[in-house]
Amino acid sequence: MNAKFRSDINHVNSISQAESSEKARPRQQPQSIRIDIKPLKALVLEKFPPNSPLRIALLAERDILEANEFLAKLETWLNLLRWGR
User: Fold this and answer.
1) How far apart are the two ends of the chain, measured CA to CA in Å?
2) d(CA 43, CA 58)
3) Count of C-beta atoms within a 10 Å radius of residue 40
4) d(CA 58, CA 73)
5) What pLDDT is stored for residue 15 in this prediction?
6) Which of 27, 37, 67, 83 is 20–30 Å from 12 (CA)?
7) In Å, how far are 35, 57, 71, 72 from 51, measured between CA atoms?
8) SS3 1
9) Rounded to whole angstroms, how far apart are CA atoms 22 and 20?
10) CA 43/CA 51 separation, integer angstroms
11) CA 20 remoteness from chain centre
12) pLDDT digit string (tens) for 17-72?
């Protein structure tokens, strides 16, 4: 084998080994994202009547929600907003 060909094979082998060692390492979990809904609660306190279903639902929530929890509840809150009109 010529030197260039051998060098290319060694390069490909080293890339393959690096990729396989990356796959073997456990992935780190992304840091969870938290969303502060206190400003949203302040808005509904100011703009919505006390008997508004959206106001009641939002004020019953914790002040800080995980992003996935926030997104799951968002659809319900939007439906309550439309229903209250």
Assistant:
1) 79
2) 10
3) 17
4) 10
5) 57
6) 27
7) 25, 10, 24, 23
8) coil
9) 5
10) 15
11) 28
12) 655 555 556 665 667 899 999 999 999 999 999 999 999 999 999 999 999 999 99
